[in-house]
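Notebook, p. 212. Picked up where the previous page left off. The plan for this session was modest: take the two constructs that came back from the sequencing core last week, fold each one, and keep the raw output in the notebook itself so nobody has to go hunting through shared drives later. Recording the first one now, exactly as returned: residue sequence, then the structure token string.
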Amino acid sequence: VQLVESGGGLVQPGGSLRLSCAASGFIFSTSHMSWARQAAGEGLEWVSGISVGGTTYYADAVKGRFTISRDNAKNTLFLQMNSLKPEDSAVYYCVRGRTVRDTRGRGTQVNVSS
């Protein structure tokens, strides 16, 4: 199983970023996928999930601002993040599964600051 995140960076409050996760080594189209994040000094936090059938789930903290999606033809998971806030700053991880305890990638850093 390999999960490689990209798309992080520095953005001003109110800005947007689109994270991507390239998946390989397993059957992506039959896997529930998620995003999790970890802020400095904090524990892992579940952010969003998407089922095999495309049903999406969001943490209250990001609902209405973040959108998770998947492209099964390209084995890629996405997280569109809009209206970013400083408290969204964290390392964002792609997760194969439903919880933060499942297999995840190495992460991509997102910093929201003016």
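Okay, moving on. Second construct, recorded in the same format:
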Amino acid sequence: QVQLVESGGGLVQAGGSLRLSCAASGRSVSTLNMNWYRQAPRKEREFVAGISWSGGSTSYADSVKGRFTISRDNAKNTVSLQMNSLKPEDTAIYYCNTAGRWGQGTQVTVSS
């Protein structure tokens, strides 16, 4: 089974940027669609962005369109999320997801 480990979270001021990474192990994810989700305090987990196995197709939540970019490197078995123009409402734990598996999450905090 695939294991997922997120990294790159942290504290940033509004308007700043962060780049999250998700490293997969246990099997190649080159044939799997990959996703990022997030969960803010007292809120449901929500979809943020997804990328097809080839990287040729991406999708985004309306709330992050134009600010976040998902990408993948199948040779390195990784997927990334570049987050620009961050807002306080982006504060959440961000999770990598594929094939029913979840990472442990990485905390992103955006201060106003």
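Notes on construct two before I forget. The radius of gyration is 13 Å.
Flagging for discussion at group meeting.
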